[in-house]
Design a protein that fits this description.
Blueprint lengths: L4 E5 L4 H11 L6 E5 L5 E5 L7 E5 L6 H17 L4 E6 L18 H12 L3 E5 L14 E4 L2 H8 L7 E5 L5 H10 L4 E7 L8 E6 L6 E9 L3 H12 L5 E8 L5 H6 L5 E5 L13 E4 L2 H13 L10
Parallel strand pairs: 1-4, 4-5, 5-6, 6-7, 8-9, 8-11, 11-12, 12-13, 13-14
Antiparallel strand pairs: 2-3, 9-10
């Protein structure tokens, strides 16, 4: 393999690719992506990639299905151009919520996406905060999963006080949110949340822990419609919480999510830029933290053969 490292961008998030390339001190690879009138996609690599170490940055941002197909075609084009190694960089993994067969006669689509990436010719995958850890096991190629939660935790350290608590929005998040509570030296509260349908809204049943008179930090991996988070924030305020802060890795923000969140009085919502946020969805209480430097460090380590996990060692 040549020593040359080349980073290409799909159309989903060229701004993030630009940040990554600036951190690495390289120019984005030249590529042409064209969509025909029949919605077919053509990808042409505009430079020599023979035996190069190539990274393709394409998160699962709307339109998701077009972005996924574009990623697969780009990987195949690079394979046809004799790239030495191809890494699919998916800051938000496509179909990550479809990770198990919890109903009859449905697809485990996250596994299907893994099969498609491998069939297209990806040699490894670099992603961030998978919705379910078992997704990494769907691959027969190396998968590196980055963690944006330390970035969010560091951001919120400034608000820590004696009257402060960290909140897990559901029982499934308890393990990793408890580590954040330990790092911030704060008590942990946990919500019992139930989801009865596919309407993206969960019903808050009980709160375990005391938040009365405290500033609280709610940590979650993603926010989609905002319905579940609105329920959590309202329940916290009914329980006597003062200021409510929210940290979230993936800001999917479908529909009127940010309008719904703005009406419940969140003090600050800190998210990352794993996917772009449309300008009309930005609100004054939203802070965007960049994961570009973290991805750049991981790409550099992969390129030279260093450990990626050392990025998260205390």
């Amino acid at each position: 393999m040549k020593d040359e490292l080349i980073v290409f961008s799909g159309s989903a998030h060229p701004a993030l690719t630009g940040e990554i390339c600036r951190e690495l001190g390289v120019e984005p690879g030249r590529i042409n992506i064209h969509t025909f009138s029949n919605d077919n996609i053509k990808v042409k690599i505009l430079e020599n990639v023979r035996e190069s170490d190539v990274f393709v940055v394409q998160p699962s941002a709307p339109p998701v299905n077009k972005g996924l197909m574009e990623l697969l075609i780009t990987i195949d084009a690079l394979k046809q151009a004799s790239a030495g190694r191809i890494t699919a960089v998916t800051p938000l993994y496509p179909y990550a919520r479809s990770d198990k067969k919890d109903e009859p006669r449905i697809s485990i689509t996250a596994r299907l996406v893994a099969d498609l990436l491998m069939a297209a010719g990806a040699d490894r995958v670099l992603t961030m905060n998978l919705h379910a850890p078992q997704i990494a096991g769907f691959f027969r190629i190396p998968v590196d999963q980055l963690d944006a939660r330390p970035l969010l935790t560091n951001h919120f350290e400034r608000i820590r006080s004696e009257r402060f608590a960290v909140v897990a929005p559901d029982a499934g998040a308890t393990k990793w949110v408890s580590r954040i509570a330990g790092r911030l030296r704060a008590p942990l509260a946990i919500f019992d949340k139930r989801r009865a349908a596919d309407d993206e809204n969960a019903q808050v049943e009980h709160l375990i822990g005391d938040v009365s008179g405290r500033d609280v930090l709610v940590m979650d991996d993603e926010i989609l419609s905002g319905g579940s988070m609105v329920s959590v924030v309202n329940a916290l305020k009914r329980s006597g919480a003062k200021n409510v802060y929210v940290g979230c890795v993936h800001p999917l923000f479908s529909g009127d999510a940010t309008d719904r969140l703005s009406k419940v009085g969140i003090k600050e919502l800190a998210v990352t830029n794993t996917i772009p946020i449309a300008g009309e969805k930005m609100r004054p209480f939203i802070t965007v933290l960049s994961v570009g430097p973290l991805f750049a460090q991981a790409i550099k380590r992969i390129h030279v053969g260093d450990s990626v996990s050392k990025l998260f060692e205390d």
